[in-house]
Specification:
The chain has 486 residues and is α/β, with parallel strands linked by helices. It has 15 helices and 23 strands. It starts with a strand and ends with a strand.
């Protein structure tokens, strides 16, 4: 069997490079593929190709023609659905069912959604009267920004890449995207789809590589990039922001989270258990929106903890193709070491390990992967590392509370501000608490429900700006006001 090589896609051509790195499966540690690391020269070529395409026909292409191409991308992803599922699972280790139900369908839907949404996007128009009695009309027109650098994460590789690519293309921009070095598969397949659909050369470019002192850093510092969008760690976002400062380039960041779930005593108990299990352990806890702090009203705390622990212990770790699998491995052994260190620190700080905390033993090839147990802690104070710092793994801390003011203070006492979940049957209470939580997204009696038209993003260290619907188009566009005096 020949070795798979994931190549860069530059100016409409797939290109390898002198330096190849390994794409390793988190399932069993096996080699998935070799990946071509883009050199600085490769990045230059990709940015130049994007600039030439932007200055050519792309930004002036009729909107309908551009949107038809985006719709064809969606259709072609769906046509190659199984290929995308296989690549996503090979890189991430997530359950096949999750890739089939969420990741790949949403990747296609992002193109379909924005190909339709841009057609109904509105701009402003105002009438006024000049002092000489003549009429004046002001109206705004939307223009693409230019060449966009997109840095995508490894946890939801296709979904989060297309969440940026689709609106950027819809608005008329050209793109140089760098997927995570951990998950290059579906990004390469997306380049194949773009190539098949027939986009003009240079409109969409993929460059593989690492971040610091490699492809990612050079791309974000490139003088001919007009804007940067990034999803990932807050510390990385800070470094990218420094790079963007020299050129005063606009940035859009969706960064880390230390999200709280608040379960009140009047909540639907079973729904709160089920929803919180999902929000803590989905994708092995590797979602920026996952819950890592669970606050439960004192009157139901013991009952909740007992049931929550019991259900967590039932979570199965199997091969991704098995229907019995509830969650997969962490992305890498290196990331697992970081998560295990957080567990160790929590125990040193006096935390009570209620469930998990270790590495499962399979006595098969999975022992060479990066699996970890779903984990629950209690007993820690609000200043402990586990409460304050994002772990990005399948872990939470459960804490009792007595009053609304108390839990609001605890939930908001964080350097992050991405998301929260509230569980209560009292809709007035839900509205009140939601308005006082310093986060970008609040779910009430649910988690991870998304309307793609709504603003998505965080406060504080959780990000800058919002994505979704009009908010995405606003970032990827420049508005020009036209003032006409009759």
């Amino acid at each position: 069997m020949s070795q798979i090589i994931y190549k860069n896609y530059i100016a409409g051509k797939f290109q390898s490079s002198q330096n190849l790195f390994d794409d390793i499966s988190p399932i069993d540690g096996s080699l998935v593929a070799k990946v071509a690391e883009a050199s600085n020269s490769d990045v230059d070529k990709a940015v130049d190709a994007a600039r030439n395409a932007f200055n050519g026909d792309w930004s002036n292409m009729p909107l309908k023609t551009r949107c038809d191409l985006l719709e064809k991308v969606a259709l072609t992803i769906e046509k190659r659905f199984d290929d995308f599922v296989d690549a996503e699972v090979a890189d991430t280790g997530k359950p096949v069912n999750q890739a089939k139900l969420i990741d790949i369908p949403r990747g296609a839907e992002n193109f379909r959604f924005f190909s339709n949404y841009i057609k109904i996007s509105k701009t402003e128009s105002y009438e006024m009267q000049h002092e000489d009695g003549s009429k004046v009309i002001n109206y705004s027109i939307r223009k693409p920004k230019g060449v966009i650098a997109i840095i995508a994460p490894w946890n939801l590789p296709l979904l989060l890449l297309t969440w940026k690519v689709a609106p950027a293309l819809a608005a008329g921009n050209c793109i140089v995207a760098k997927p995570s070095e951990e998950t290059p598969g579906t990004a390469t397949l997306l380049a194949e789809v773009v190539d098949e659909v027939g986009f003009p050369d240079g409109v969409f470019n993929i460059v593989h590589g690492y971040g610091p002192k490699s492809t990612g850093e050079y791309l974000t510092k490139h003088h001919d990039i007009d804007a940067i969008t990034f999803t990932g760690e807050s510390a990385t976002g800070s470094e990218i922001m420094k790079s963007a400062a020299d050129g005063v380039k606009p940035v859009s960041f969706e960064l880390g989270g230390k999200n709280a779930a608040i379960i009140f005593d009047d909540a639907d108990f079973d729904a709160a258990i089920e929803g919180t299990l999902k929000s803590v352990f989905a994708n092995c806890g590797q979602v920026c929106l996952c819950t890592e702090r669970v606050y439960v009203h004192q009157s139901i705390y013991e009952k909740f903890l007992e049931k929550f622990k019991s259900e967590a212990e039932k979570i199965t770790e199997n091969w991704p193709q098995k229907e019995s699998l509830d969650f997969g491995p962490l992305i890498s052994k290196e990331h697992r070491e970081k998560v295990l260190k957080a567990f160790s620190t929590a125990i040193t700080d006096g935390g009570i390990l209620e469930v998990g905390g270790g590495i499962p033993i399979f006595d098969d090839k999975r022992d060479s992967g990066s699996w970890i147990e779903p984990t629950i802690f209690t007993g820690l104070g609000e200043k402990s590392d586990l409460i304050k710092n994002e772990v990005f793994g399948p872990v939470c801390h459960v804490t009792p509370f007595e009053s609304e003011n108390e839990v609001l203070k605890k939930a908001n006492d964080s350097k992050y501000g991405l998301a929260a979940a509230i569980w209560t049957k009292d809709i007035n209470k839900a509205h009140l608490i939601s308005s006082k939580l310093n986060v970008g997204v609040v779910w009430v009696n649910s988690w991870y429900l998304r309307d793609l038209r709504t603003p998505f993003g965080g406060m504080k260290l959780s990000g800058i700006g919002r994505e979704g619907g009009q908010h995405s188009l606003d970032f990827y566009s420049e508005l020009t006001n036209v003032c006409v005096k009759s």
